[in-house]
Amino acid sequence: MNLNGIKNIIFDLGGVILDIDYNLTVKAFEKLGIPNFKAQYSKMSQSNLFDNIETGKISPEEFRNLIREVAEKDVTDAEIDHAWNALILHLPQYRIEILKKLQDNYRLFLLSNTNKIHYDDYSEVIKRENGIEGLEPLFEKTYLSHEMGLRKPNPEIFNVVLNENNLVAEETLFIDDSPQHIASAKTLGIVTYHLENEDIGELF
């Protein structure tokens, strides 16, 4: 990857740093009795229910109650959380080492569409498997959609990161695995890289 002129790197989380599999959550929710769940939640798009929890418009408790309304059988909070978190897999240690190395030469930021239920779960996974207390030490600042009230691909979420940190778009690289997020960042002049089948270990 050509990093000439790049001073800042904004990373997506799921599918870039953290291994995830959307299909596992789809299968888990369909097993709970929610028909055609994939039509409501996928990498490319999702219904308002999932937009709302990822922008903090509804609480985890409200989210669980709404899931129960569409489920075809009684489900507990724990069952809902287990299904919702099924997509979260692992954070390989070598990716942590890559980020630590990049910190020497670049300003690093995290920009993730996420929610409180996922945040709590992946923080526990990272602590258990990698021995670190969250992702915050690996970045100058982390931006999480449910705390910001915005989610990608809304261009405003990129503007927040740029403006709060005095970043020049043309000096900033954004790495994400979702094409709609890449397209949005490009409209602001941000340098982008769509991570498809590669691993960031192949880029740096």
Q: Could you walk me through the main structural features you see in this protein, from its secondary elements to its overall organization?
A:
The chain is an alpha/beta fold. The protein has two domains: 8-19 and 90-203, HAD superfamily/HAD-like (Rossmann fold, 3-Layer(aba) Sandwich), CATH 3.40.50.1000; 22-87, Orthogonal Bundle (DNA polymerase, domain 1). Helices cover 43% and strands 11% of the residues. It is built from ten helices and five strands; from the N terminus they run βαααααβαβααβαβα. The chain has helices at residues 22-31, 48-54, 60-70, 77-84, 93-102, 116-130, 145-148, 155-164, 179-186, 200-203, and strands at residues 8-11, 107-112, 141-144, 172-176, 191-194. A five-stranded parallel sheet has the order 3-2-1-4-5. β2, α6 (116-130) and β3 form a beta-alpha-beta unit.
* Annotated CATH architecture of the largest domain: 3-Layer(aba) Sandwich
Report, as a whole number of angstroms, the end-to-end distance.
Answer: 7 Å
Spans with pLDDT under 50 lasting ≥5 residues? none
What would the average pLDDT be, to the nearest integer? 93
What's the total number of strands?
A: 5
What is the helix content? 40-55%
CATH superfamily of the largest domain: HAD superfamily/HAD-like
Q: What's the tally of helices?
A: 10
The sequence of SSEs as H and E is EHHHHHEHEHHEHEH
Per the principal axes of the C-alpha atoms, what is the gross shape?
Answer: globular
**What name does CATH use for the topology of the largest domain?**
Rossmann fold
The main sheet orders its strands as 3-2-1-4-5
Structural class: alpha/beta
What portion of the residues fall into strands of 2 or more residues?
5-15%
